[in-house]
Amino acid sequence: MPGFVVAITVSSGQSVSAGMALMLIESMKLETIIRSPQDGIVHRIHVKEGESFEHDAVLVTLSKEGR
Q: Which CATH number among 3.40.50.1100, 1.10.10.10, 3.30.70.1790, 2.40.50.100 corresponds to the domain 3-63?
């Protein structure tokens, strides 16, 4: 669903573990925490706080540690 980014809780290059909060989004007046699906490193954050995004948008790209 389309929505907008309320808060980003990680930064590029940061190591994250599975289940860690990456950002808070709002869609249809509901806030949702986006969590890391795996251990890894934040490779790129594709959105900024307060920015809108469309359905199926890539919000964060993770890479596996050591790659």
A: 2.40.50.100
Cα torsion for 45, 7, 41, 2, to the nearest 10°? -50
SS3 64: coil
* Residue appearing with tokens 């007046």: 29
User: pLDDT tens across 1-18, in order?
Assistant: 899 999 999 999 999 999
Instruction: Give the global pTM.
Output: 0.88
DSSP 37: S
> Which of 18, 17, 20, 8 lies closest to 44, judged by CA?
8
